[in-house]
Specification:
This protein has 234 residues and is of the alpha+beta class. It has nine helices and four strands. The chain has a four-stranded antiparallel beta sheet.
């Protein structure tokens, strides 16, 4: 009786320690994981450099750029985890479904870099090293070429507030002589004989000196130039 009870107890403890968790730990390759994470870090750092060199917005965010590196590594880590077990992959999908990215993306290029970082992390986690390296080189080259050699002619909104309607013809002539193209987008008449006109303009060689000339005109209260994203440029 005692021998049987002892054998049963020993068998129970052996069953406890024979856990599938230990089997999964034994099948886990630390070297492969380190290689994947180091590669993800290198690709993320490459994306970081490309973003910094090609950024053409108004406010450069260092924190956003750092997040591209973290996103690449974190995505690679997730792919490494879910690639070993179908149960983990289903659980991860359910867990990630509650995550919402609520930071507003004003520049479409920021969204491109986020997608690039996520795609690179997936490839690093899947072990497709040649593909992620070739893709990073080609995408980085395209980014550098298009950012440094192509000039985009951005339109601006030029808002003038004044009180004397008789200067409108002179105002129109002065603007037309200083810009490439212009057109009236709106005109408002407010109480107190206050008027406001909004032009869409395209500058000549980014020359904004005419704004001071317009501001010095009689009865003009203010002259403001805005980019279409709402940021002050003058």
């Amino acid at each position: 009786m005692d021998t049987t009870a002892t054998a049963t107890t020993t068998s129970t403890f052996n069953d406890i320690f024979k856990s599938s968790f230990l089997d999964k730990t034994e099948s886990f390759s630390i070297i492969d994981s380190l290689i994947g994470l180091l590669l993800a870090f290198a690709i993320g750092l490459f994306i970081y450099v490309i973003y910094k060199k090609t950024f053409s917005g108004v406010m450069y965010s260092h924190n956003f750029n750092i997040s591209l590196i973290i996103m690449t590594m974190a995505t690679a880590l997730i792919i490494m985890g879910i690639s070993t077990n179908i149960v983990i992959s289903l659980g991860m999908v359910g867990a990630l479904s509650i995550v919402r990215f609520r930071t507003p993306i004003k520049d479409p290029m920021d969204l491109v870099f986020l997608f690039w970082a996520a795609a690179s992390g997936i490839l690093c986690g899947a072990g497709l090293i040649p593909l992620v390296i070739i893709g990073a080189i080609l995408i980085g080259t395209v980014m550098l070429v298009f950012a440094n050699r192509l000039t985009v002619e951005n339109p601006y909104l030029f808002i003038v507030k004044y009180t004397d309607a008789s200067i409108e013809k002179t105002l129109e002539e002065r603007i037309s002589s200083k810009v490439k193209k212009h057109s009236i987008k709106s005109k408002s008449v407010m109480p107190g004989n206050n008027l406001e006109v909004t032009y869409e303009i395209r500058l000549k060689d980014n020359n904004t000196e005419f704004i001071n000339q317009v501001k010095d005109m009689d009865s003009v209260h203010s002259a403001i130039m805005l980019s279409y994203d709402g940021n002050f440029t003058a």
